[in-house]
């Protein structure tokens, strides 16, 4: 800190004059910041395009140059520039990918390293692209299933809030100016509106503070984060959906690693932090330790308590037949189908219930709004 202050006011320190970055270093730093903004879907598309070029017989360095010239965005182009530079300097492609963890991730880098060692880089890249595309499609279906109910609730709450805050009080003032008492339904709505108007700012502030506090605590405390996600998995309906989602991701990742030729114990080292769920990551580490002690995969997974019997029992059979990698991919596809079916069933039940509740709420507000108008005719 003292050295930075001395350099800022123009003094020379014991470490010598302040170092001035060259133009190339500044451009390289700016390029790294641009490359870090490459989206997950763009990186997936790059992997598939690179695999297609390699399959067509193009060497790796020229293939990267072709992708660089056809990249649609500056961030993607800069990412390819950095990867091409690293590869041209003799680095392995997996090492070049590892410098961009946001775009490629640990699983992708491990699979590319296996493909480079086995000479099957093209096939591995196709597998990675397929795995990432299915995972992205899974998240898209989940978001799509949640979007419609959330939009319904948001629109209904906005309409109800507008009616109670602006429309009903206006008609109440007009009605009271004629010296008549308000109907009971309108008085109830006005009381609710006044209460919500006084409480809502404090409630919103408290909810925001609670959200920030919970987010910080979950971020800084691994034990609390583990307990939180364990509680979510125990929920009646949402817990089942979350389990199916992460089981599908886990099975597809392990199946992709095994099909690329990764040994089972090494695959668990890669999977330890890939799922993105602390409970499944801990279960993966526990199962990996059991496998190193000589336990079978199915028994190790059963001991963790995270994987349902519908996943463990087929794995036990596949270990005997030697078709574990293919079975894991099939189990992932089956879990995806079960998740889609559960989401459709939940949406079929939830959406009509939301419509009925919102209809009753807004209908009650409209009735409370028009009752004074009807009685106003009798007063006049």
TrEMBL record:
InterPro entries: GspF/PilC, T2SS_GspF/T4SS_PilC_CS, T2SS_GspF_dom, T2SS_GspF_sf. The keyword Cell membrane applies. Keywords: Cell inner membrane, Cell membrane, Membrane, Transmembrane, Transmembrane helix, Transport. This is Type II secretion system protein F. Residues 9-35 are annotated as: Disordered. It comes from Pararobbsia alpina. PROSITE patterns: T2SP_F. GO terms for biological process: protein secretion by the type II secretion system.
